[in-house]
Amino acid sequence: MRRALVAGNWKMNGSRSDIGELISSLVAELGDGVNGVDIVVCPPFPYLNQVADAAHGSELVLGAQNLSEYSSGAYTGEVSASMLQDFRVRYVIVGHSERRSLFAESNQQAASKFVAAREAGLTPILCVGETGEQRSAGQALQVVADQIDFVVGVAGIAAMAEAVIAYEPVWAIGSGESATSQQAQEMHAHIRGLLAAHDEDVAAAVQILYGGSVSAANAEELFACPDIDGGLVGGASLDAQSFIRICKSVS
């Protein structure tokens, strides 16, 4: 049976003081673990060491929001997988819609970053999802299929067994408008079916998260769907009590 996973993506938010208060609250409430749930926090790069130290010895796991597809070299401003390993990072978000839309990351670049993460022993959280225009045009299933198939084509289906997929409808992120549980379950089942066409065992085992205005109010209904294994939480993960409620609701 698949374990649940909740990952908090703090995005470009916080200060040393804010981050200290947030991680202290999370360690106090979630540090001993939540039954059946893996909990990941993904702070901005400058605070990785602070969060790693504060979470050390707890059940909270450290993640990063991005990585370079290159291992080293003249790539000013980039962060490699090996650098993330120095801070005990275990998960890394790849292909987030904000990286795709704001920084023009392509399916090819997302796939290259996925491979870089896997080669370093990190677990990529591969983000896929459609825009509002694509959903309105009836293209949602095909858009997500193209994103999944591209990574599988580059990395191979076996690599997906050591990865997490996050479905994030782009039109829901930060809008306060979540996909309905029916819409989310339909897409999650579609993703699992895409993987099953290559390898049924991998499809059955991979954790597929929902991301898109997840909140304490809608988490329980979303997480009750059979193919939704947890959430990639944005804004609500910056509020300790909301994130704690979300983590406990999935258990």
TrEMBL record:
Binding site for substrate: 9-11, 174, 213, 234-235
Localisation: Cytoplasm
Annotated metabolic or biological route of this protein: Carbohydrate biosynthesis; gluconeogenesis; Carbohydrate degradation; glycolysis; D-glyceraldehyde 3-phosphate from glycerone phosphate: step 1/1; Carbohydrate metabolism; erythritol degradation
Single GO cellular component term: cytosol
EC number: 5.3.1.1
Keyword terms: Cytoplasm, Gluconeogenesis, Glycolysis, Isomerase
Record PROSITE patterns: TIM_1 (PS00171), TIM_2 (PS51440)
Active site: 96 (electrophile), 168 (proton acceptor)
Catalytic activity, reaction form: D-glyceraldehyde 3-phosphate = dihydroxyacetone phosphate
A biological process from GO: glycerol catabolic process
Record InterPro entries: Aldolase_TIM, TIM_sf, TrioseP_Isoase_bac/euk, Triosephosphate_isomerase, Triosephosphate_isomerase_AS
GO molecular function (one): triose-phosphate isomerase activity
Pfam family membership, one: TIM
SUPFAM superfamilies from the UniProt entry: Triosephosphate isomerase (TIM)
Quaternary structure annotation from Swiss-Prot or TrEMBL: Homodimer.
Function: Involved in the gluconeogenesis. Catalyzes stereospecifically the conversion of dihydroxyacetone phosphate (DHAP) to D-glyceraldehyde-3-phosphate (G3P).
Family to which this protein belongs: Belongs to the triosephosphate isomerase family.
Designated name of the protein: Triosephosphate isomerase
Gene source species: Pseudohongiella spirulinae
